Amino acid sequence: MLDDLKGKRVLITGSSTGIGAAVALEMGRLGANIAVHGFRNRDAAEAIAAKIRDGGGVAHVVVGDVGKTEAARQIVADAVAALGGLDVLINNAGGIIERVTNEGFDNAIFDQVYDLNVRSILNVTAAALPHLRAAGGGSVIHTGSIAGRFGGFMGSTVYASAKAAVHSIARNMAREFAPYNIRVNTVAPGFILTPFHAETPQSVRDTAAAQIPMQRLGTAEECVGAYVFLASDNMSGYITGQIIDVNGGQLMP
User: Fold this and answer.
1) Cβ(148)–Cβ(163) under 8 Å?
2) Considering 114, 159, 227, 238, which one is annotated as catalytic?
3) Would you state the CATH architecture of domain 2-246?
4) Active site includes 238?
5) Element (DSSP H or E) covering residue 106
6) Burial category of 3 from C-beta neighbours within 10 Å (exposed 0-12, middle 13-18, buried 19 and up)
7) Is 207 exposed, middle or buried (0-12, 13-18, 19+ CB in 10 A)?
8) What is the pLDDT of residues 158-182, one digit of tens each?
């Protein structure tokens, strides 16, 4: 049923590492043509694209800061030029930037977190929409977070609220874009072992794992299936406006 991904033109923001990289590699293996996006780590993006090509796939690299409006538009323009159009958009770029408590709230951090996690999705999707419509429809997938579901742990108030905004934006987009045959969904990962948690102390990891019914943390590769499922019309053609939680049972909404 995944044969319908062959030849699909896919832009994945934040795909030089972590979950985005894992998704890019698998979609490339399935025959999709991939625009791998990076910002400060172009070499890492080039390495992912090279792996896709080594496996017989098609991959291009686009670079830019999704948090900046003009750069976000240019990223889409570059991807469309390289791919010849667009069928699937995965808004995966995001990050916590810095942990800030409510007591220590910082306006500058707020702006950075919302630019990276929220403004980027609005700008990239708006730029991609005409191309998705020209393709006759498609799939938009946002990367949300378990933090957006329950409010996050200490120091993640701004990040958690940004991801909650992403969840809400996806539902609104799903309603607005449905007449164009464009589905919009969200994948909300839990505690996944990626560079996102590179500086998370082992004690915190162990505590988190103990609270998860599956008694372990997840991997980037274990998130991939949800994205592939939502990108495929054969698999999820009647699914839009939904959040798929990938968290080992840590949160069961």
Assistant:
1) yes
2) 159
3) 3-Layer(aba) Sandwich (3.40)
4) no
5) none
6) exposed
7) exposed
8) 999 999 999 999 999 999 999 999 9
- Could you state, in order of their start, the residue ranges of all structural domains in the chain? 2-246
| Residue 229: pLDDT over 70 | yes
| Across 201-222, average pLDDT | 87
Residue 190 DSSP SS3: coil
What is the pLDDT averaged over residues 234-246? 98
Please report, as a single letter, which amino acid is at residue 143: T
**Phi, then psi, of 134 in degrees rounded to 5:** -65, -30
CA distances from 118 to 14, 58, 60, 185 (A): 14, 29, 25, 15
Q: Where are the beta strands (DSSP E) in the chain?
A: 9-12, 33-38, 58-63, 88-91, 138-143, 182-189, 192-193, 218-219, 243-246
